[in-house]
Write a structure and sequence with these properties.
Elements: H1 2-18, H2 20-49, E1 65-67, E2 72-75, H3 79-88, E3 98-106, E4 112-119, H4 123-127, E5 133-134, E6 149-152, H5 154-161, E7 171-174, E8 177-184, H6 190-193
Parallel strand pairs: 6-8
Antiparallel strand pairs: 1-2, 3-4, 3-7, 5-8, 7-8
């Protein structure tokens, strides 16, 4: 049995050397197939197999502005437009706005660029997310001048601040401006919001 396997392996090696072109095509085809399979599985895992960790996530939808004259199907909505939508919408229980952004954390540790999300004050309420430590935003914290507050992901809190619970209530510098940390999200939301980008 072992001798037959060894003979087959030697034969395969001789044929691979003898027909290099065909071998390269077969290897490339296998590599592309495996790569495509891994990519498709990653998308399916993120979209279907691992649903959003929010209660009633089947009721959450995204709405955006479309400008067909420019060929833009997903445009950023201005704050004024969002407020109009909130006032005039009768189809949704709540509307919340969010926008991703890169910023720089400075302070005691080395400066670090992180990925964040600017949100309206009702963002976490709409998603049904509670802070693990501290709290999420209050309605009045959506007003200009009262919006210098931050909720951190669990991963960022652990990595940059050593998981110090005393961080809640203290200020951190984001893009050179002081923000008061009011809450830390549970770890199960790190893959949704990102941790160290």
């Amino acid at each position: 049995m072992l001798e037959t396997l060894w003979r087959d392996l030697r034969f395969a090696a001789r044929m691979t050397v003898k027909y290099r072109g065909m071998s390269l095509i077969a290897i490339a085809t296998l590599a592309l197939g495996i790569g495509a399979n891994a990519a498709v599985f990653s998308v399916l895992d993120a979209v279907l197999l691992r649903p959003f960790p929010f209660p009633h996530s089947e009721q959450i939808c995204f709405v955006w502005k479309t400008d067909l004259t420019r060929g833009a199907d997903r445009q950023i909505v201005s704050p004024a437009e969002f407020l109009d939508w909130q006032e005039q919408s009768h189809a949704f229980v709540q509307l919340s706005a969010w926008q991703t952004w890169f910023s720089t954390l400075t302070g005691a540790a080395a400066p670090e660029q992180v990925w964040g999300v600017h949100t309206s004050a009702n963002y976490f309420e709409l998603l049904g997310v509670q802070a693990e430590l501290g709290r999420t935003f209050l309605p009045e914290e959506g007003q200009p001048g009262r919006d210098q507050v931050a909720v951190l992901t669990h991963g960022l809190w652990q990595r940059r601040y050593g998981g110090d619970p005393a961080l809640v209530g203290r200020s951190i510098l984001i893009d050179g401006k002081p923000y008061t940390v009011i809450g830390i999200l549970p770890a199960r939301y790190d893959h949704v919001y990102g941790t160290a980008r």
